[in-house]
């Protein structure tokens, strides 16, 4: 059983460590990649069209699939979002909110890019 | 200025404040709210989302600032302990004393804990507040198994939460079936199977006698002598109205609890009202939020205008959420109120049970229940609530019309204006239509904002969407099927824009003709258009706009592995090639199956294995089978005149020729074809998008056939023509379809909607009435010439190959992949 509760949103203020994930080039433009941080899987998105980076749990809460990094990103009324490849449930990249209103929300994490490297913010 | 005090800051208490402030001026009422819980009111209905990461802030109905802005004094963490009815004051446990003109009791209810021996033990929980959930989560980390006592609506929700915590999960129910108040025996046994498949253990007819353990629980014992070893227990055995203040101060309460109210929600003291789950109205405690909101509305109207609108019986229809399978019951689900006839549909294979109760005269729908598939819930509820006319065969309501016609009885246009669409906010069809026709709102987000409809449980959103489309249509607005919010064009218009302006990438099109950042609807649609227009390798410029399966050139499966389907044109294959497939399958441990399309599917490949597998296949002379694309799939063949004693022409050779001609061709939806050697039709050509059947003199060409969800036979486009004409007509037919169809529309529904139908199609294809015949042919030739095997390109391109892995920062494979074994092959472990 995959533990959903391992994924808890981290806000910028609460970041204790920045995990050095991968070089910018590992993430396709307007695409995503999955970063392994010990037992966590975090989906990181290079939203180059908006010049923004996002990170969320890789786990789709609908059918507990480790897959969101392979999802397609886009926007809904300006809100950046990702669509799960399996059944196209969509989640806000900003807040993690489920935009279909039927699944639960997902955890989000801060991202920073320094010297061409991508970092994910963690609480511990 | 009237002084209002609200006791209880739960969902209903909050809604009361919201409504009172929205409907009356701030200077008319002074409002003070006491809440026992430490935080402002939150959405208890979606409490379970807290388990999966939704934060307290997100659940909060309105932040403290809202109360400040609206000049409402909110005192949280304060329990009201006394009411002085004579002097009209209340007192809290902190000693605060405030006076009121009108007092509102919105004290809700608490979880009922049956007096079983041992309930005080560590590890026993109830499921009602955020604190309860925090405690459960903390304790759940230390144990491996848990039981939920109660198999009702809430109990099952709690069970799913426990399951999601990763614990071995049991549900213990006293009644002989699950959800005894919503489902009959048959329905609940179907539900039980579904839940057992999810991994929840169900124990029925169990009367718990003792909660055992030394200090902390380690098991339950039942009075039939059996026992269940679990380390944690969540009690969900019903609710008890919080009527202690009323009792203490001699307001009348019901024999089984609940503050007695009249139709105007007044208690026995005319200055004191009770609303929400604490109120007892005509012998009923309403354990749902929608009736509570309605009660708040009734009281607000009285306070403002002395309005005498009464609270009437409220519909208790419910849809269960979150459990992983649909369950709903509506109206008179058991047929208890009048004589009825039931129509029942049960499908044990897919776990579906539907029952509707029809009045004896066959004219009205009284109620029913749905398990496994509750898509029809909203519409059925509407039909029942509004006494709408039933179709001639009422069974169509749950089976859908059979015989190819559209489903009946589901047109929103048939609903009366008074039909309640959103029950949480009590918004009628008339309210929504008015927002569209008079206020000019046209999309769901605006409608939600303006009317509040769809902001509660969200169950009515599909209905609202239908209402928007229908209302716009009835206003004479041409409802153009534009792609999505990012492109105000139809697919056909976009296709033309791409061609005329020589556009080669999605970003170029979005910059020039779209807005925003795109989405999962327009990206694959445009990807398909670009591929149909230019046939460039799809991963080169635009991997990230490809739909799931196209993105990795393979079909994704449960668990996140992929399948491999090499092309086997016409279904003909040499023993040597068969051996290669067998060897590859064995080496990578792939589940192997003969498909319905005369070829072989290898399942269960990891992302990182795909390029290696394909390298071996490509080296052995195989090509991509495009089983993942909206593109040509297979051209099936029958054995034909070379071997078959009836064969009129060589169907296998022709099938191979056709498949190799159109391989890799991308289109609005997938394309299938077949060639049969004679009229016996062993290749089933008449069920294909284009099918060819040999005749004595040549070939008959059929188009627009479909198997799948809505089978339809293909229509004869041309008879007794030679091979060259067959190819010419198929070129024209496919290109015409590709240019004009809406996204994800197979040829059959496209042809059904084509104005002028088959005759017009013949005119375009055969008589060339539009004068575009040659153009269509040359456009097709361009695509055919541009064909390259996608997998060969990936295999030989290290940069593309590198994209096929699960993690970007380590070489590990996804540790969550897991398989089981069946009949000597591997399978993914099923999903929750
Ligand atoms: C493998 C196969 C079943 C099998 O084991 O036999 C299959 C498997 C799938 N079919 Fe199929 N279909 C398969 C033959 C069929 C057939 C029969 C046929 O082609 O002779 C049909 C009905 C004929 C037709 O299409 O008109 C068929 C009608 C569908 C449909 C419904 C299409 C429709 O118009 O209603 C879908 C859904 C869709 O495409 O949107 C679908 C979708 C799927 C998908 C791709 C679902 C998905 O997106 O994951 C399945 C992928 C399996 C995988 O992971 O590889 N499959 N599917 C067959 C592969 C044939 C092949 O060699 O390519
Ligand atoms: C897990 C769960 C899932 C649910 N799912 C659904 C669903 O899908 N659909 C649906 O319609 N309903 C659902 N419900 C029921 C729904 O939440 C309730 O009907 C609704 O919350 C009732 O609102 P209320 O304001 O009457 O009571 P409550 O929300 O219980 O609020 C009452 C508040 O008053 C406070 N209070 C009590 N006495 C005092 C006092 N003396 N002084 C100060 N404060 C006091 C309490 O602490 C509490 O905060 C669900 C409930 C739970 C627990
Ligand atoms: S019919 Fe096709 S889509 Fe449905 S389960 Fe079978 S293979 Fe999958
Ligand atoms: S698993 Fe993600 S939408 Fe179904």
How is this structure best described in words?
The complex is a heterodimer of chains A (124) and B (832). Chain A contains no helices and 12 strands. Chain A is mainly beta and 124 residues long. Chain A is globular. The model of chain A has no long low-confidence stretch (mean pLDDT 92). Chain B is α/β, with parallel strands linked by helices. In chain B, the strands form 11 sheets. Chain B has a 5-stranded parallel β-sheet with strand order 3-2-1-7-19. A 5-stranded parallel β-sheet of chain B has the order 9-16-10-11-12. A 5-stranded antiparallel β-sheet of chain B has the order 21-22-25-24-23, sandwiched between helices. In chain B, α1 packs parallel to α8, α11 (429-437) crosses α13 (461-474) and α14 (491-500) crosses α16. At the A-B interface, β2, β3, β6, β7 and β8 of A face α16 of B. FE2/S2 (inorganic) cluster binds at residues 60, 62-63, 65, 84, 86-87, 89 of chain A.
Largest sheet entry of chain B: 5 strands, parallel
Question: Strand content of the residues of chain B, in percent?
Answer: 15-25%
Number of strands of chain B: 37
Query: Greatest chain-chain interface?
Result: A-B, 57 and 50 residues
For this structure, the quaternary state is heterodimer
Q: Which structural class do you get from the secondary structure elements of chain B?
A: alpha/beta
Distance between the termini of chain A: 23 Å
Strand content of chain A: over 45%
- Output the number of helix runs of chain B: 27
Helical residue percent of chain A? under 10%
- Helical proportion of chain B, percent range: 25-40%
User: Uncertain runs of chain B with pLDDT below 50, 5 residues or more?
Assistant: 403-410
Task: Note poorly predicted spans of chain A.
Answer: none
Task: List how many beta strands of chain A DSSP finds.
Answer: 12
Mean pLDDT of chain B: 91
Largest beta sheet of chain B: what is the strand line-up?
A: 3-2-1-7-19
The termini of chain B sit apart by 56 Å
* Global shape of chain B: elongated
